[in-house]
Amino acid sequence: MKKSPQGQQDPYSPGGAQQPTCPVQRVRSGTSGHTSYLVTGYAEARQALGDPRLSKDTAAFFADKGSRRRLHPAVARSMLASDPPRHTRLRKLVTKTFTTGAVDALRPFIAQVTAALLDQWPASGRVDVIADLAMPLPVTVICELLGVPEADRPQVQRWSADLFAAGHPERIDAASHEIAAYMTGLIAEKRDRPGDALLDHLILARDGAEQLSEEELVSLAVLLLVAGHETTTNFLGSALLALLQQPADLERLRRDPDLVPGALDEMLRHASPVSTATFRYTTEPLALGGVEIPAGAPVAVAIGSANRDPERFASPDRLDLGRNAGGHLAFGHGIHRCVGAPLARAEAELALRAVFARFPEIRLAVPPEQVAWRPTRLVHGPATLPVLVQTAT
Question: 5 Cβ partners below 8 Å, 6+ apart?
């Protein structure tokens, strides 16, 4: 069982918190006594993620629950927390920005940002991959794509981190209001001085013939800003950590970087950057994995566990770059599958290629069990990843 010095266990390690016991488990809350269901099996998770009887309309579920939470509506009622037809309408506005073709056009910029970040690494010495690459790379890319000014990006990064501050609901709620207020102000500025970024195009959709409310405009912008980098940060950190523990595989990818794109699916399966899918609840009774679930029950889909299900993937705890892992659920499944998946894959591919080329002698600076993991149930990745590097001669 892997634990960091802070005691945060890697939930995907053998014996970790997300290791499957049975495919669908009935869970009773220790504080409220309410019953929910946890899905850990692959087949059951895939079914749940694509089942229209599992709603994501969080606002509707909590409308009469008297919750003490004060999340800003832009976060609480985002595209991610909605069902068709609203979800369909909102997703259509952004899908074309993240197609494989559109992302291919961004690859030179992603490579440029990656090179600039690696230029700041020492020729020889210790580096934190998370702080010095995995976090700033996707933040820079999504901020550039949306049109967020460079001077504002460090603050945006802090707000985003606060939104995933597990165990600190007040901090999460406060960050939701701060980032929504910021985005509201940025939208107002762009209306006065329009540009050609994605946010400008969404503003045109709002002010033109498209059915997009002002609240939905702010909500879309906040969601893209936050979701547009959190997944990649966690994926890049986890992937590199896994490869550093398998030097032969790392060397194979370094010698033949064209193998990197094909290895991404297995790395995504092995260390899913989203640990648990966002909130769902049943709108009518249904059977899942032989378990009868009543209407109105919260259902949590443990993506990390599903991707380690031995019924679907042999020797699931082993990173096997020769495995066909194309069916993994790291980006979800169904109508809510991550719209930014092509961008996350491109960023991870180009970053890994660049690191392997520049720093062929890269190695962990601490034992793997001392790597600190992010203390959050929703996303999964190292909080820090200290390595020792030496430039190629």
Answer: 370, 372
In DSSP terms, which residues pair with 387 in a beta bridge? 127, 364
pLDDT digits (tens, 9 = 90+) for 188-238: 999 999 999 999 999 988 877 667 889 999 999 999 988 878 889 999 999
Question: Torsions phi, psi of 9, nearest 5?
Answer: -75, 145
Q: Which amino acid is at 187?
A: I
Tens digit of pLDDT for each residue in 90-136? 999 899 889 989 999 999 999 999 999 999 999 999 999 999 999 99
Q: What are phi and psi of 286, to 5 degrees?
A: -155, 160
- Side-by-side strand order, sheet with 386-390: 124-128, 386-390, 363-364
Sheet with 298-301: list strands edge to edge: 24-28, 35-39, 298-301, 280-282, 54-55
Where on the phi/psi map is residue 167: left (φ > 0), alpha (ψ -120 to 50), or beta?
Answer: left
In 273-284, which positions are buried (b, 16+ CB within 10 angstroms) versus exposed (e)? bbbbbbbbbbbe
The residues with which 35 forms a beta bridge, in sequence order, are: 28
Name the maximum alpha-carbon separation found in the chain: 65
Cα dist. 132→93, 119, 233, 237, 241 in Å?
A: 33, 10, 11, 11, 15
**Structure token digits, residue 76:** 């609480």
Distance CA 288, CA 331 (A): 21
Amino acid, res. 301:
V
